[in-house]
Amino acid sequence: MERIPILKFGEFLLVTIQVDLYDQLAENLEADLINLVRKHHSRGVLIDISAVSIIDSFMGRILVNIAKMSKIMDAETVVTGMQPAVAITLIELGLHFEGVYNALNIEKGMELLRSKIYKLDEDDDTYSSE
Amino acid sequence: MTLTVQNKEEFVVTIEKDALIFRNSVKTGAEKISMGILYQTKIITAASEIVRNLLKYGGGGKAMIETVTDGRKVGLRLTFKDNGPGIPNLDLAMSDGFSTGKSLGLGLPGAKRLVDQFDIRSAVGSGTMVMLLKWK
Amino acid sequence: MSSIQALQSNSKNITERWLQLQANEEGDFAEALSEEQKTEAAELVTNLLKSLNETSLEDPDSDAFSKVKESLGILSLSRARQGYSPRETATYILRLKEAMLETLSTEITDVKELYDNSLKISKILDNVMINSFESFIKGREDIIMRQTDEITEISTPVIRVWDGVLALPIIGTLDSSRTQVVMESLLQQIVESESSIAILDISGVPAVDTLVAQHLIKTVSATRLMGAECIISGIRPEIAQTIVHLGIDLSGIITKATLASALKTSFDMMRYDIVKKSDKKTLGA
Predict the structure, then answer these.
(1) Domain boundary pick from C124, C148, C172
(2) What is the mean pLDDT of chain C?
């Protein structure tokens, strides 16, 4: 059974989607992610979709579901690397990604997660956990 | 408007794998007529919505990819047919509360926005037919 | 002698008469027909007469004429690009028809046969002329489309005003096809420059109605999917009035009156301070 690999990056989990997500694969991803969030007490989930050229409403729902589940487990979700053509198509399609943050790439995605999770130290522009 | 069909390919869609094969064939068809990336993304996404309906609600069916021309422009026409239960309230299915951002039911109004021509025929008990056309 | 034979045996005469009619048409300022044009004409006549037979005479849409139509199509297309007038394109073939009918009237003595076959030839040549005119129109439309594309490109520049900040002065009406172009180039630039803020300046947009507002909102939403934020600047007082009166909801979108204030907001968002250089002069060591 094919499963999408999930990497641990400190307090974050990273998923890179490079294949078409069909039903079973998507369900497995949701389950695997949420289990790992619990196991590692992850505070953030990054889903990189830079290799995804088509996102339809099914795929969109998966991403929103992952974000909702993660939020319940106290983790924030960032989707990174959306292709321009995909972004324009999604807007036209009318999909709204509630509860999902977006970033240009994985690096910016991590920065964004840190800013959401940690308190910002105003003096030296660094983050520290509360 | 009379259209000339330059190329035709028919597919049977009964399991999920068929849907993925169909999607890839749509991409190939679009590439063959040198459709730009944005338009390709739009037609393939629309096709993905419809073929998903075909599987989930229509109990499977047939799909067709045609390269068409009206003498001036060239485009891709996709036709989907199933013998499922049909859509009871077509008007309702085609409205979507787009501005209020409600979640999509059948993805039909979204698919319509992505293409140049959209046609749907459905009646309870006699299945559904959907046609999508996108010019290059 | 049949009409077809009459025409086919007079190929040279028809060509000469045609060229003569063309030359007369031009008037005082016309240039003499070039050798190339004369050869072109002779070839066309030969091909056309060759495709005349018992069957094709009855059917203007016959396949027999496709070669002639094709070569005429190519000729018309190139003439469209060279700037020939629509009248010149149409009369080109009509003069040929004239030449052919003249020949027929000298060769055929039976009045009924002359009339019947003149009609048939006329229908065939009219059909050929319409085809060539359509190609001509297409050639013109190609030029218009190319110019439209160029104008669209020029009028939607994306400027990198700072590291991570893009500015788009939108000039002219914002319709759906323009919005598409704006979105495509903006998002592409965001990827390439890794920008996090895009300022859409609409001081050059004459009117903002519900549709235009929708296009703006779409652009803002697409930008957010790319992980960047949008600021709309250049909102004139009249536009602000219209937006409120139409009940358009722009909440959730940062709006500024000027590009300058949008830029300042961008710096704030990126946590930059602008500090004036100190006036203190350092004492010499």
Answers:
(1) C148
(2) 87
